[in-house]
Every structure is written in structure tokens, then in C-alpha cells.
Amino acid sequence: MPLDGLQFPTGELSADVKDALQGTQGDPSDTNRYVTKTDVATSGNAGLMSAADKIRLDGFPSQVADATTTITAGDGLTGGGTLAANRTLNVVAANSTITVNADSIQVGTITDTEHSNLSGGTLHAAATTSVNGFMSASDKTKLDGLPSSAVPTTRNLTAGAGLTGGGDLSADRTFNVVAADGSITVNANSIQVGTISDSNHGNRSGGSLHSVATQSVNGFLSAADKTLIDSITTGDLFQTIWAEDNGPLVNGEREWSFGNGSEGVNNVYAAQDGEIKNAFIDAETPGTTASIDIMINDVSAGTASFTSNGLVTLGTPISVSAGDAIGFQTNTVVGTWNDVRVGVGIAQTITGLKGDKGDPGAGTDLVVQKDDSTVGTITETLNFEGNAVTSVTDEGSNKTTALIQVTGTNVDAAGAVMNSDTSTASMAFVNDAATTTTNLWSADKIQEEIDEGIILLTSLNALKFRYYADQLDYPRSSDWAVNNGAPSARDSNNTALTIRRFDDSSEEGVGFSTVFPLLVTDMLIRIKFRALTAPGASAGVVWKLYWRRFPDNGAVTSWSSLQLPTATVPTNTNVQYYSYTAPLTTWGITAGDFTQFELTRVGGNASDTLSGDAGLLSLELEYS
Q1: What are the residues whose beta carbons fall under 8 Å from the beta carbon of 491, sequence distance 6 or more?
Q2: CA diameter of the chain
Q3: Which whole-number Å values give the CA distances from 609 to 159, 529, 542, 575, in the listed order?
Q4: From CA 522, how far away is CA 464, in angstroms rounded?
Q5: Closest Cα to residue 440, out of 399, 476, 405, 482?
Q6: pLDDT of residue 554
Q7: Which CATH class is domain 466-623?
Q8: Nearest to 161 by CA among 185, 182, 184, 177
Q9: Residue whose C-alpha is closest to residue 624's, from 510, 511, 526, 513
Q10: Got the DSSP string for 79-106?
């Protein structure tokens, strides 16, 4: 290649370069001088090493593998090959006993096949207290029987306050309650309060540890109240007597009827000694004022003055003896008083009444007392005889008292239980004309005789008032809760008796009034009635009681009512004894109240299934 005229970026070659190039490239005498160029080596031609190949060459280690070298997958592996390309080797699990993960392997599920006698076998020895091993079946049973919260036997149980015993759990332990003194009694399986002494209780004996009772808060009975209670030795028992005048009251007339319709000079007799302290009047149409004379043995013994319906207290009590004839006479009236009822209460004072049931007498003896009775001009003196009578005392003032020996509740002198009206022990009643001997009565029989006014027990268990059918009022005005009276009639089974007929389709009633004795807390109402026509099947009768009170110097209350539980009537026309008991608080009545009552049959009630009339023979009130 001729160099003359060859241009380089930086100018022409120097002469020296030219000479050098020419000297090495041809004949120096040849005027056509050339420079020979060597190319970069390739995979097919040798040549100059390129800079890139130099860098590559320098990057190889001093020793390199041949690309034909082969990588072979050994046992448990797959993959491999020559180094001519990238290669991957993998662990291969033959079954589920090995689990191959992306970057790890682990044991999978070992079966009996891999483990040999894995299930309950003997490949491993059972564990002992010194060598690890298999858990035996007995150890597993013991383990399963332990609670999840099992504690070691070194856990200690300590007897706390009031106890002895205890220890660790290596053996059974017992704890015991220990009583420091007799205030606690320790039994085999329980404890209880023993004997409390003053030192245990504080100032127990008459002290001030407890507050004294008041009318609103329970507490200790004060000495003053105890003295007052012990001083209570009297109580009042009441007999109510009333009459009615259908027409207008007229000055000086004595047109008062005692329930049988007869007017004129009529009387009833006191069954007991006592005092008349209160009187009442109730008129369908009251006038301005009315004064009524209270007649004792046809002589005016006092006058009750009224300005309206209600109860008044007499200024001076009127003394009454058993057998006295009691009646009423109109004194003076202002205004018109129509359809009027007037009445009084005889209060009898019982000496020796203590507590809520009275004084039973000396020891276990029963005290029986009878007032000599005078009716008209005839006086009967009652005395006592018989093997049950231990003593008889003439008290004077026509009173005789007998002590009857008893050995318990309802027993006679021989100790036999008296379950019926009479027993084998005898007691005689002797009057002036003759001696009549009768068996000693049971408590119920004696009580029945009290009701009849024959004898009086100072150990009084109950007080009764009885109203026969012809003594019950006939409601026929707006002054009654139900203005529809049950009519009177002769009993078809016994025409000697009067009954009140109650209809089966409407509400009809009878009236009565009473004064509640002091000291009583409960009232029993007993109705004696029968079906006038025998029902074909057991039936029911619904009785209802209405009442209103006449407070002392207070307004008459409104009517209250209570439907009594249904009375059952069997398939006959026999007399049925129906009763219902409730405390005075149920009736809203206070002892000493004068109260007007009306008893009705609610014939239209669904529970009243008796077809036909119910005939009432009597009605009783019993207080206790």
C-alpha cells in the first residue's frame, strides 16, 4: 500500500515511521511501498486479540471444566446432564414417609410397614423410672385418670382458723372444727349453736343490746310494756241485738220487729251478763234527728240519739243481766225516717283473760262457768257433779264455777281421747227441780253449748254468733250492696224450719250486722244450706260476701266484697256445712268495728252449677 499522500487524522506519518514500515513490508528499492494490516481473531481465523476477548479471558479461573463434563443424578435424585447447559437435581420421595418441600425435606407419615411393629409392639422397651421408653397401656390408663389440674403429693393442706388436721397429699387427711367453749356444738357431720351465755351475747339479760319494740319496728319488749300486758285481765265479748221498723218512725211508738215481721211490744233475751255501750241506726231514708229508748224488761234504761245513719257510743253504759228482756221504743223523731233498723251490742267482761287464748285455769284443769239464768220469774241454778269434776265453787251473784280434770287436749278424766261430742267421763248439771246427768263434752261440744248461751269457758278458744234464716235481714233498698232479697219459706223437708231461698239465675242476698269482739284476729263464716232439688251430679254454689263498716264518729265506708271459694253440693238434699276462714286484715276490719254484711248467691256465675234454689238454714260467724 503506498504511504505517500496517506493522510492520518493527526497528519502524515513521520519519515521514520514510513521508513520502518517500508523496510519491513517490501523491497526497499521498490518504489511501490505497501503497509500490511492484521485483522482481529475470530472463531474461524487467527488474528489480533480483541480487548473484549482479553477481558473475557482474564475473567476465567486458572482452571476450567470442559463443557462436555456430565453431572449424573445419583440415588434418591433425578435430573443432571453435561455442563453445556444449566442443570437441576431433585430429591424424589418414593412414598408419603418423606415430604419434599421447595428447599427442604422432612419425615412424612410413618406406617407399620416402615417402622415394623409400631402399633403396640415391642420394638421399644417400656419406660421405667430410670430409662426412657414406650408408655405402657397401664401407664396410659393411669395418666388418663388424672385430672387436668393434678397437683403433686407434696402439695400441703393447712388447717386454717377454727380447724385442726391437714398435711401433704401423700396420705388421706382429716380436718375438724374445734369448739372453743360451749357456745358451739360440733356434731359428726354438722355444727350448731350451743349455749349462749351473757359473755357471748353481750348484755343479753335485760340489757340494751337490742332496741325496744315500737309500733312500726320489731324489737325487745320493754319492762313498761310487759307491765302493761300483765295488767290486761279483762276482755269484751259481744252479742248484737237489732230490730227493724218498716214504716216511718212515730214518737212514742214501739213498732219494732225482730226479724219475724211481728210488730208491737217485742223483746229478745240477753244470753249473758254485760253492758250496752254502743247503738246504731240504719234507715233507707234518714230524717234529721231520732232518739231511741233502749228498753230493759219493758223499762227505758237509756236513750241513743242519732243525727244520721251510723254508730254512736252511749254516754253511760247500760248494765244487762242474762235473761233480761231487751227491746226498743221510738222516743222522738224530727223529719221522716223510713225503713229503719236499730241495734245494740252487749259487751260481756271476762275476768282472768290473759294472752290471746285466755287462762286455762289451775294446772291442766278446765274452768267451766255458768251464770244462773232468770227468764221471767223462773230462776235456774246450775251446779256440777260427776267423776270429772274436781271442785265446784259458788262465786256468788248467781255464778257457779267448776274445775274439770283433763290430762291433755280433748281428753276426759280417764284419759280417753274425746273425738266425738261425748266421752265416758260424766258431769252432771243440777237445777232447782231435778238432776240431769250427761257425759262430759268434748271441746267442740262445749263450744257449741257456749254458742247456745248455756255455758261459758273462760279458756275461750273461739266466739261464735249464729243467725237463723228468720233472723236475717231482707235487702230491699239501695242501702244494700245487692237490692234483691232472698225470700223466706218453710223448708220442704221440715216445715218447722224457716229457710231463705236463693235463686240459681240471679244474685239474691240476706243481710246481717255484728260488732267484732276485741282481741280477735280471725273470722270464720259458716253457711248451713242444702239443695232444694237433688242434683243429678255433684254441683257448685257460689257465695259472695259484701260488707261495710260504721266507724265510731266516722263516715260509713263503701261496700267491699269477696267471692268465696265454690261450695260443693253432692247428689242429695242433705244440709251442707260450708265454711271459709280469713284474718280480719283480709276483710279490712278492726276489732270493735260495727259492720253491716250481705251474703248473696251469685246464681249467674259460671261456677254456680246447681240447678234450682239453694235453701239457707243458718249463718254463723266464729272469731278467734
Answers
A1: 497, 498, 499, 615, 617
A2: 210
A3: 71, 15, 9, 17
A4: 12
A5: 405
A6: 86
A7: mainly beta
A8: 177
A9: 526
A10: EEEETTS---EEE--SSTTEEE-SS-EE
- Residue 141 burial (CB count, 10 A): 9
Pairing of strands 366-371, 456-457: antiparallel
Outline where 370-466 has alpha helix (H).
443-451
Identify which of 445, 540, 462, 313 has the alpha carbon closest to the alpha carbon of residue 454: 445
Which strand (E) or helix (H) includes residue 242? strand 234-245
Q: Which three cell numbers stand for residue 95?
A: 412414598
Classify 234-347 by CATH class.
mainly beta
Single-letter amino acid code for the residue at 97: T
Q: Give the three-class secondary structure for 12.
A: coil
* 48 φ, ψ (degrees, to nearest 5): -65, 145
Query: How much is the average pLDDT of 481-508?
Result: 91
Of the candidates 583, 522, 513, the one whose C-alpha atom is nearest the C-alpha of residue 548 is: 513
C-alpha dihedral sign at 579, 359, 443, 433: negative
Whether 580 contacts 523, CB under 8 Å? no
pLDDT at 411 over 70: no
231: helix, strand or coil: helix
CA 234 to chain centre: 38
Reference 368, options 346, 343, 385, 349; nearest CA is 385
Cell numbers linked to 384: 256440777
Task: Please indicate whether the domains covering 234-347 and 466-623 agree at the CATH topology level.
Answer: yes
Spell out the domain ranges in the chain: 1-59, 168-223, 234-347, 359-459, 466-623
For 213-242, how does the pLDDT look when each residue is reduced to its tens digit (9 = 90+)? 887 888 888 777 777 666 554 445 566 777
Cell 232439688 -> residue: 533
Please name which of 236, 618, 229, 278 lies closest in space to residue 463, comparing C-alpha atoms: 236
Q: Residue written as cell 248461751?
A: 453
Cβ contact 211:217 at 8 Å: yes
Residues 6+ apart with CB under 8 A from 372: 379, 380, 381, 382, 398, 399, 400
Query: What pLDDT is recorded for position 537?
Result: 93
CA gap 412, 414 in Å, rounded: 5
- pLDDT value at position 607? 92
